[in-house]
Fold this sequence. Notes:
Number of strands: 9
Order of helices and strands: HEHEHEHEHEHHEEEHEHHHHH
Structural class: alpha/beta
Largest sheet: 5 strands, parallel
Shape: elongated
Oligomer: single chain
Helix content: 40-55%
Low-confidence stretches: none
Number of helices: 13
Strand order of the largest sheet: 2-5-8-1-9
Distance between the termini: 61 Å
Mean pLDDT: 89
Amino acid sequence: xxxxxxxxxxxxxxxxxxxxxxxxxxxxxxxxxxxxxxxxxxxxxxxxxxxxxxxxxxxxxxxxxxxxxxxxxxxxxxxxxxxxxxxxxxxxxxxxxxxxxxxxxxxxxxxxxxxxxxxxxxxxxxxxxxxxxxxxxxxxxxxxxxxxxxxxxxxxxxxxxxxxxxxxxxxxxxxxxxxxxxxxxxxxxxxxxxxxxxxxxxxxxxxxxxxxxxxxxxxxxxxxxxxxxxxxxxxxxxxxxxxxxxxxxxxxxxxxxxxxxxxxxxxxxxxxxxxxxxxx
Length: 280
């Protein structure tokens, strides 16, 4: 069972090695990288390539580790008891299975995505240490032990918003997705826009990487934003010559709203244009 990438996802050799190493070691694969570098999509493509079911657990700031195991709905049980419903005598009717329970008891070894784990409380990763390590947990309300029938392939993503505990990191295989270089980016663009003009791609990439290199930029544009920009350029019939026009009054590229996502970065380019006009 080897991941070799897919037709719709350009995976570097290092990334393929990392995925396969995590599968061999039966360790969670911890993926870090800039937003927009394809961390979440990786799990989707791994499931597709290996023909495995995909279970997605998207983490929020309010998410608790217990929710991934199960939740006991005491409120519903109380309401049913007041209504005289006979099912209140079986407490299992009020156990809500979480994503880990679903992954542990699936018919086939699924791919479990724990997405953006760094959004949760700092204790969240520690609270899942034993469950992810031993692939089992205990349900106190029903006195049953849930053990993984087929060990899932666990992929965990992080945007590095906060540090993860060392004890958690020791149990993972780690890979950092480097931002794609221009050659890799061209391959990604070819997958999404196979009929796009090569000269337009070359000029757009030159501008894109120039923007990313501007000192003081608060949010660098990502791969997904580049693809959005290219889609708009094609819709507006932009030519390479139009993009190449770089007079001092047009330092901000056309349709820049796809690339620059906050007013500070727009103001930065406006200041650069002003300074360029003064110097000329």
